[in-house]
Amino acid sequence: MNTMNISQSEIMETIRMIEDENLDIRTITMGISLLDCGADTTEKLCQNIYDKITTSAKDLVKTGQEIEAKYGIPIIHKRVSVTPISLIGGHRSPEDYVKIAKTMDKAAKEVGINFIGGYGALVEKGYIDGARSLIESLPQALAETDMVCSSINVASTKAGINMDAVAQMGGIIKETAELTKDQDSIGCAKLVVFANVPNDNPFMAGAFHGVGEPERVINVGVSGPGVVAAAIKKAGNCSINELAELIKRTAFKITRMGQLVASEASRMLNVPFGIVDLSLAPTPAVGDSVAYILEAMGLENCGGPGTTACLALLNDAVKKGGVMASSQVGGLSGAFIPVSEDAGMIEAAESGCLRIEKLEAMTAVCSVGLDMIAIPGDTTAEVISGIIADEISIGVINTKTTAVRVIPAVGKKVGDHINYGGLLGRAPIMPVNNASPAVFIHRGGRVPAPIHSLKN
């Protein structure tokens, strides 16, 4: 694939955005199919997985570094996603699945990447035996690995909601928090529950390599909340129509950079270019915040009246601008609202202006869901399952991706904080409505797909 033609003015503008407005490529993620790794014994399966990952991704980090040096574009993470492991592991015990997770972790460290995703299962319509074992293994697997991330898809618009899986995940999240309590329950930061999960998402913890994807593929996730916020502030007192046009133009510029990096990585690695995920992914760095964008649009505080409307405008304009810059847009694409990873969201949560109920409303118009939210460690499994069920319902009914990455931090209460550093950031413990949904959650079964799923 030929490198894109970039004008000198575009290059100079990109340099300014990198230096002054926290613009970066959040991740280059190589997707790797493990469908040919099956074996009779767990030991042979683990060896096949290790060999496939380390062979396929051996040059990923070096390539990312070379692109950074050539173009001066920061590439924060290099990552790998693999085929959902429950499809590869088959009818094995939870203990065997933990061995597979440790193999993935070892391979990730060997090739030098930051995270590896795909230790997950797709159970929206029911369980295969491998999925049950993998889910049961999650607390131990996430406690005993450093880089392994997991996503469990429990619902889709076509299938409805697997409430047995929703109920199970509440307990799994609690157990994961307990086993990693000495690290502020960090295991939960590597575990996300989805509805309508995308097959080509480069962002963790939800990334996996879909079964319809090529043998290997390069997906790139861009960032740039700071760039959008700066552009809005410079625009001053313009109309909402003008604001939308400004965001579209800015998203176009950000996505052009992602397209360039994706094309270069694809060429250098001789791996097909998959998609650019044009999501505005914040960081804890001051100025690199989706919340600050919403406040620049005219809100006194993120979380106050008007927040959902501003986020809807932002998300739509980002998508419209981004798709004009790349013919291959996918993944999640839009605006992320993770609390711990966004300085403005942290401030809004600490002040009490932003609460979980408002965040849930915002997820109806954003690109992900309830993300990186810390809650009291004594929150019950049933309440966590209720939170998951509420959020997943928004995705199913609205035919969009939604997800929950919630952290019941053991030993922490409202007013305390967790702190992971790096991109995972820090988060205040947010209050939760503890009215129990236990009777509903334990009914089991499946919430039927909505009537508008019948589109054939």
Radius of gyration: 21 Å
Instruction: Report the structural category.
Output: alpha/beta
Q: SSE string, helix = H, strand = E?
A: HEHHEHHEEHEEHEEHHEHHHHEHEEEHE
Number of strands: 14
Quick one: overall form? globular
Taking the alpha carbons of the first and last residues, their distance comes to 36 Å
Number of H/I helices: 15
Main β sheet profile: 12 strands, mixed
Uncertain stretches: none
> Approximately what portion of the residues adopt beta-strand conformation?
15-25%
Helix content bin: 40-55%
Mean pLDDT, to the nearest integer, reads: 91
Using the coordinates shown, work out and report the CATH topology of the largest domain. Anaerobic Ribonucleotide-triphosphate Reductase Large Chain
The CATH architecture designation of the largest domain is Alpha-Beta Barrel
What is the domain tally?
Answer: 2
What is the level 1 CATH name of the largest domain? Alpha Beta
What tags apply to this protein structure?
456 residues; globular; alpha/beta; two-stranded antiparallel ribbon; Anaerobic Ribonucleotide-triphosphate Reductase Large Chain; 12-stranded mixed beta sheet; 44% helix; 2 domains; 15 helices
Task: Characterize the structure shown.
The protein has 456 residues and is of the alpha/beta class. It has two domains: 30-195, Alpha-Beta Barrel (Anaerobic Ribonucleotide-triphosphate Reductase Large Chain); 218-439, Anaerobic Ribonucleotide-triphosphate Reductase Large Chain. The protein has helices spanning 8-21, 42-56, 60-71, 85-89, 94-111, 129-143, 163-179, 225-235, 240-269, 290-296, 307-323, 343-351, 356-362, 381-398, 438-441, and strands at residues 25-32, 75-82, 115-117, 121-122, 148-156, 160-162, 191-195, 216-222, 273-277, 370-376, 402-409, 417-421, 425-428, 446-447. Strands 1, 2, 3, 4, 5, 6, 7, 8, 9, 10, 11 and 14 form a twelve-stranded mixed β-sheet that branches. The chain has a two-stranded antiparallel sheet with strand order 12-13. Helix 6 links the parallel strand 4 and strand 5. The longest helix is centred in the middle third of the chain and has 30 residues, at 240-269. The two termini are 36 Å apart.
